[in-house]
Design brief:
317 residues, alpha/beta, seven-stranded parallel β-sheet, three-stranded antiparallel β-sheet, 12 helices, globular
């Protein structure tokens, strides 16, 4: 069985860990969001790719869901002593090593997909992790504050400002001119099912789908998603701020409609949203809080089961 998962950071990574337990024999390809990528201290940082890699490879800081376990911050403290910023984005010493290796390989001419494969040789995540594109795509957010109307990198809005300043618009800059990374479209075309974990529908999965060719390939497959919204609030993070920026209500129903019929075939919602109905999309309800390994594995299994059920029904037509 071949499965493709479109993934952002923490929610996607934890879902993938559950999926690996639910379908240990499956061949899983993960298409990772790179719109959050940013250059800091002369290094190329890929937060979502690294979160997936560390989580599945056993190196993640479990409490916060990102960064390395047993981390120290000597380099960060020394940079601060020199007055070198930004101080709002903290990289740990162990994490720095990953970004140094990535940057060296990129500067040597390797593509991001090849670099990611090389990094995964160490971590052995048990899935094939591919960035959505080898081209540079960065999500920018237009805000208006005491400095006037301006565009900032998504990371500044998300990490430094904590999305406290309303986003007037959000754009994956460079996406429309990007090409899917080698292997992305082929993996989707060969997949038995495509799954959307409870990642941010705007700046994670939405950014992946913004790369020309990916949405079209995904739409041709059986697609089941897991709602990142429970009872009108994000499971974690600030997805509501992103949804508001694009004019979408923060609800399980509205997110499914945002993805749309023609892309989404099935939609898993929490029991708090059991009354949700979306025309043309099969909606099922079950507990969606990933409160532990068993609960997360059960969510992944339910998502996959619904996808396979819908695929069998489509094949029978």
């Amino acid at each position: 069985m071949k499965i493709v998962v479109l993934a952002g950071g923490i929610g996607g990574a934890r879902f993938l860990r559950g999926l690996r337990g639910a379908a240990p024999e499956a061949e899983v390809t993960v298409i990772g969001n790179t719109g959050d990528d940013i250059s800091l201290f002369g290094l190329r940082v890929c937060p979502d790719l690294d979160t997936v890699m560390y989580t599945l490879g056993g190196g993640i800081n479990e409490e916060q869901g990102w960064g390395r376990a047993d981390e120290t911050f000597t380099v960060k403290e020394e940079l601060a002593a020199y007055g070198v910023g930004p101080a709002w984005f903290g990289l740990g010493d162990r994490d720095f090593a990953t970004h140094i290796v990535r940057t060296q390989m990129l500067e040597a001419g390797y593509r991001l997909s090849a670099v990611t494969e090389a990094l995964c040789d160490r971590w052995k995540p048990g899935v094939r992790l591919i960035p959505m594109t080898d081209d540079q795509v960065e999500t920018h957010v237009v805000i208006e504050d005491e400095k006037g109307r301006r565009a900032v990198h998504f990371q500044e809005w998300w990490v430094r400002l904590r999305a406290s300043v309303p986003a007037l618009s959000i754009a994956p800059v460079g996406a429309e001119d990007a090409k899917p990374a080698p292997g992305v479209v082929a993996a989707v075309e060969e997949a038995d099912a495509v799954l959307f974990p409870p990642s941010n529908p705007v700046v994670s999965i939405g950014t992946i789908l913004a790369v020309p060719g990916i949405r079209e390939a995904v739409a041709a497959k059986t697609v089941v998603g897991v709602s990142p919204i429970i009872g009108g609030a994000p499971v974690r993070g600030m997805a509501d701020a992103c949804l508001t920026a694009i004019g979408v209500e923060t609800s399980a129903r509205a997110v499914a409609e945002h993805y749309g019929l023609g892309l989404l075939d099935g939609w898993l919602v929490d029991e708090a949203d059991a009354d949700v109905r979306v025309e043309g999309i099969e909606v099922r309800s079950r507990p969606l809080l990933m409160s532990g390994p068993e609960e997360t594995e059960a969510i992944a299994r339910a998502t996959l089961d619904l996808a396979l059920e819908l695929k069998r029904a489509e094949d029978a037509l």
